[in-house]
Amino acid sequence: MQNREENSLSIAVLTVSDTRTEDTDTSGQYLTEVLRAAGHRLWEKKIVPDDIYRLRAEVSRWIAEEAVQVVLTTGGTGFSGRDSTPEALAPLFDKHVEGFGELFRSISYDEIGSSTIQSRALAGLANNTLICAVPGSTGACRTAWENILSRQLDASFKPCNFVAHLLPRT
């Protein structure tokens, strides 16, 4: 097993919402708490409105930042009016992590039944940065973290994880 420092990643958290503030952003707060508890470093946490171009600009800035290895977004993955996280992020991906959304919806089905079909959770790699977009509810963030992200962001998880793909760029 690797030590905690070797397993530590630099992670940015972005909440996509027209209504949440730092005081009401329980999903973003949850993600920052669990990533720190797992020994990772919070690079930055922000809230941006449901606007495809502002969302894309913020995530692009983090992708270009050499120190950021993971971007976790919460919100904007549904079908409501301004939900545009998938449309904003997918064009940025060098490679799509095809199974992420499917796995999230499969796990989520046991919790919320067929309502999971309305989740457009997705993930991809861009410039050696993993970007994962999950729904905006704290429960959905917990489902993603406990069942997918905590393991895939852990270098000791076998047979494979994303850490080797996120090594610092030289």
TrEMBL record:
Biochemical pathway: Cofactor biosynthesis; molybdopterin biosynthesis
Domain MoaB/Mog intervals: 12-156
Coiled coil: none
Record carries keyword Nucleotide-binding: no
Domain of life, source organism: Bacteria
InterPro entries documented for this protein: MoaB, MoaB/Mog-like_dom_sf, MoaB/Mog_dom, MoaB_proteobac, MoCF_biosynth_CS
Keywords: Molybdenum cofactor biosynthesis
One Pfam family of this chain: MoCF_biosynth
Family from the record: Belongs to the MoaB/Mog family.
Function comment: May be involved in the biosynthesis of molybdopterin.
UniProt-recorded name of the protein: Molybdenum cofactor biosynthesis protein B
Organism this protein belongs to: Microbulbifer halophilus
High-level lineage: Bacteria, Pseudomonadati, Pseudomonadota, Gammaproteobacteria, Cellvibrionales
